[in-house]
Amino acid sequence: MKKELSFVLNYALNKGFQIHPDAFKILDDITDVKQLEKIIKEIVKEKTRQKKFQINQNDLETYLGIKDDPNLLNEIKILSDPTSKVTSGEGVKGYNSLFSSRFNKLKRIISDRPESKMIKSISVVKTTKLENDVYVCGLVTTRNAERNITKLVLEDPSGSFEGIIFDEELQKTAGTLLIDQFVMARVASAKNSGLMIKDLISPDIPDQKINKSESEVYAVFLSDLHIGSKYFMEEELIEFVNWISSPDPVARKVRFVLIGGDIVDGVGIYPNQNKELVCQTIEEQLQKAEDLLDKIPKNVKIIIMPGNHDPGRRALPQPAIPQKYNSGLWERENVEMVGNPALISLNGVKVLMFHGQSIDDIVKTTPGLSYDRPTDVMKNLLRARHLSPVYGSSTPIAPEVEDLLVIENIPDIFHVGHVHKAQLDMYKGILLVNSGSWQKQTPFQASVGMVPNPGLAIIVNLKTFQVFHENYSSNSNNVLQS
Ligand code: D5M
Ligand code: FE
Ligand code: ZN
């Protein structure tokens, strides 16, 4: 008999328990010593309370959840996915229609607010003497903070104007606006015949009811695996995948695994990348991903979305990773390949998945935001109701006729990755998850002082929205931020 097993058996016997031989067999199969001790202690505690002093097979099966509960639902609905919608519209005309689609969609969203009844177009406001305050809507084209004023240029389909902000608090609000985002402004004539902005209203998220799953199942949030990279934490991810099929009571209820992009490291993404790869082709990298995900039980649905390292179109919105690079993943019953961004319903819980490349442009241009707190950036995106407003910076945006990056449908969970920092937060009832990464710090990241916290798996109970995490990092400073 294993030493550890006799230790736990003695523990139970000393507390006056009998152990049925079938229960004994199950205990003997558990290889994780710590788990063995924990299980016996919990069962002894519970049965002492019940004053039943025998441990039988049923007790262990209940505790371990060895029999998967067939009543647990795992229903996926793809509510929106750009894969079949992306066109290859090009040129100035394409961008004109993109921006006009953005403006129109967001104007519709903001029209739920009472102030919106007084909206005037910019050309009208510029050419009439304003007796009272009026509201205008527009996309922010420039934002300049000067000594003690801020100047903001807004543009709508009728034209553009520069408004001046004097109020200190409002200047701070203006500082959080993203370039090319939609905003509504309260405007009045200034003394010097110019226009003064007296209030700024973002489309934002209204108060709303969060959808929950009736079935008590869990979803796992992952991203930025970077399979194929030398720095991919293969052992740790394998350990986590093994946990999913372990008898742990939470693992037994996992029915969804979401991967928010950068599943592979890709090829030719940055200069001299080949020196940092262990798999030199996309096909090899994706094959390795497939082999790894194969270990996940088949009753768990896996959703795979591309990031900026994955193959396929680079510009946003991105279609799903093309089938030609790996037909195995596409053909798998329990795998859904979706584009970036995608809105998915998991037993009725709406999850907005977005890789998060736009965070790069936003932290560069917005005072107070940094890579260290990605969920703060995610809040800005929700307020702007747009996933990637800044046009013409480092995030490539395709000249689609329809702007598919407007957040039209409000999610219950907002899942982003890209910055390799796992973090949790809440905004207006929406659970914000940045799922971190499974790649150790790369030389590039070290050179810019970026410290990732990789190897953390975030797990959400879709019935209660309680969040758990499993930490596979050997570095004790590596913790989940919230
Ligand atoms: O991005 C991982 C992280 O590294 C993300 O926070 C962006 C940052 N990153 C990546 N490339 C650059 C460059 N060239 N400049 C600044 N910051 C960068 P990933 O998409 O995994 O490469
Ligand atoms: Fe990444
Ligand atoms: Zn990325």
Description:
The protein has 482 residues and is of the alpha/beta class. The protein contains 13 helices and 19 strands. The protein folds into three domains: 3-63; 76-85 and 208-471, Purple Acid Phosphatase, chain A, domain 2; 111-201, OB fold (Dihydrolipoamide Acetyltransferase, E2P). The protein has helices at 3-14, 21-29, 33-50, 57-64, 91-110, 122-127, 168-176, 234-244, 282-293, 327-331, 359-365, 374-384, 443-447; strands spanning 18-19, 54-55, 76-80, 134-146, 149-156, 159-165, 182-189, 195-201, 218-222, 254-260, 301-305, 335-337, 342-346, 349-354, 413-416, 422-427, 430-435, 456-461, 467-471. The strands form four sheets. It has a six-stranded mixed β-sheet, with helices on one face. A six-stranded mixed β-sheet has the order 12-11-10-9-18-19. A five-stranded mixed beta barrel has the order 4-5-6-8-7. Helix 9 (282-293) links the parallel strand 10 and strand 11 (301-305). The two termini are 44 Å apart. The mean pLDDT is 92. Zinc ion binds next to loops. The site of zinc ion has 6 residues, from loops.
Mean pLDDT: 92
Count of discrete alpha- or pi-helical segments spanning 4 or more residues: 13
CATH fold-level name of the largest domain: Purple Acid Phosphatase, chain A, domain 2
Number of individual domains: 3
Q: Please tally the β strands and state the result.
A: 19
Strand content: 15-25%
- CATH architecture label name of the largest domain: 4-Layer Sandwich
Q: What are the segments in which pLDDT stays under 50 over at least 5 consecutive residues? A: none
* Main sheet strand line-up: 3-13-14-15-17-16
Bound molecules: 2'-deoxyadenosine-5'-monophosphate, fe (iii) ion, zinc ion
Biggest sheet overview: 6 strands, mixed
Coarse morphology:
elongated
Give the helix/strand class. Answer: alpha/beta
Q: What share of residues is helical? A: 25-40%
Radius of gyration over alpha carbons?
A: 26 Å
**Top-tier CATH class of the largest domain:** Alpha Beta
| Cα end-to-end separation | 44 Å
